[in-house]
Design a protein that fits this description.
The structure holds 2 protein chains of 2 kinds.
Chain A: E1 3-11, E2 15-25, H1 30-42, E3 48-58, H2 60-73, H3 87-90, E4 101-107, H4 111-119, E5 126-129, H5 132-138
Parallel strand pairs in A: 2-3, 3-4, 4-5
Antiparallel strand pairs in A: 1-2
Helix pairs in contact in A: 1-2
Chain B: E1 5-11, H1 17-30, H2 35-57, E2 63-71, E3 74-81, H3 108-116, E4 119-124, E5 130-137
Antiparallel strand pairs in B: 1-2, 2-3, 3-5, 4-5
Helix pairs in contact in B: 1-2, 2-3
């Protein structure tokens, strides 16, 4: 199964770009997702909601993409894949103390994907919402 | 009734790893494995196959033979290749207490495998290559709750 991305816009208190992922995020397509978010940032996106309702699988490479996306949304150059784990340092996040940034938020995270985020400590970096409506109200 | 067993050979290409995930889902669904077990098997086979493509073959052409089968109360995954020796179990466990910015990239795949599987073993393949065997019980609970 491939990965399909759908981009929508919404107006909360701030303009929000929603990227919905449908399929499987793996080592064959995570760089494409990163590039898509880079384009959105260059077009003006500053608040990003990743809707993972239909994302049925996420590989460890997907975690690297999430790091890169956070970095991009903080105005930093996207790291290459090998530098993915350095992303948090450059945006000044403190994963160890559990602080989450708010420029990139998640909704609709399915149990298998949530387990990957939890098992790697990445869940601490993201504000997550049960569904899109709840997320949009929270931005 | 014979135990469910399926084999698949894929070329060593990242865009073919989805095929082995589909194989893992097919076998675990067929034997009625609980969802957490299905998810763990799919995750492990993906991370292992991806590691072989990236770190075993390193861009060279090659193949992976993947078998997923039930043995008693366990699901057993076997992946064979003819890449240069590559033992993913030799990689140290990432220390998750270290801030993410100081972790080495690429260590998360084997970390996820270890949390998804009950046993992981590597051995050389006779004639060259590698054999990676991973197994998980049909326990419906994730590792963290056992």
């Amino acid at each position: 199964m491939a990965l399909e991305t759908t981009v929508e816009r919404a107006e909360g208190r701030v303009p929000i770009t929603i990227v919905a992922l449908d399929g499987e995020l793996d080592a064959s397509n995570f760089e494409g997702l990163t590039a898509a978010v880079r384009d959105l940032y260059e077009q003006g996106t500053r608040q990003l909601l990743l809707d993972l309702t239909d994302l049925r699988f996420m590989a460890s490479s997907g975690l690297v993409a999430l790091h890169a996306i956070v970095r991009i949304m903080h105005g930093e150059a996207a790291p290459d894949a090998d530098a993915g784990w350095n992303a948090l340092h450059t945006v000044g996040l403190d994963a160890a103390s559990g602080s989450a940034q708010t420029e990139v938020q998640l909704c609709g995270v399915q149990p298998a994907v949530q387990r990957v985020l939890d098992r790697t400590g990445l869940s601490r970096l993201f504000v997550t919402h049960p569904d899109r409506a709840t997320a949009l109200a929270a931005f | 009734m014979p135990a469910a067993r399926h084999r698949l050979r894929i070329p060593a290409a990242l865009d073919r790893v989805a095929d082995v995930r589909a194989l893992a889902r097919s076998v675990t669904d067929e034997i009625g494995a609980p969802q957490v077990c299905v998810d763990d098997v799919v995750q492990a086979v993906d991370e292992a196959a991806t590691n072989i493509v990236l770190h075993g073959y390193r861009g060279r052409a090659g193949w992976l033979d993947v078998a997923v089968e039930r043995e008693g109360d366990r699901v057993v995954i076997t992946i064979e290749d003819d890449a240069p020796p590559f033992d993913p179990t030799a990689h140290p466990e990432p220390d998750l207490t270290i801030p993410a910015d100081r972790r080495r990239p690429g260590g998360m795949g084997i970390h996820l495998i270890r949390l998804a599987m009950d046993a992981v073993a590597h051995r050389p393949r006779p004639g060259g290559g590698n054999i990676l065997t991973m197994s998980r019980t049909l326990d419906p609970r994730p590792m963290e709750e056992r």
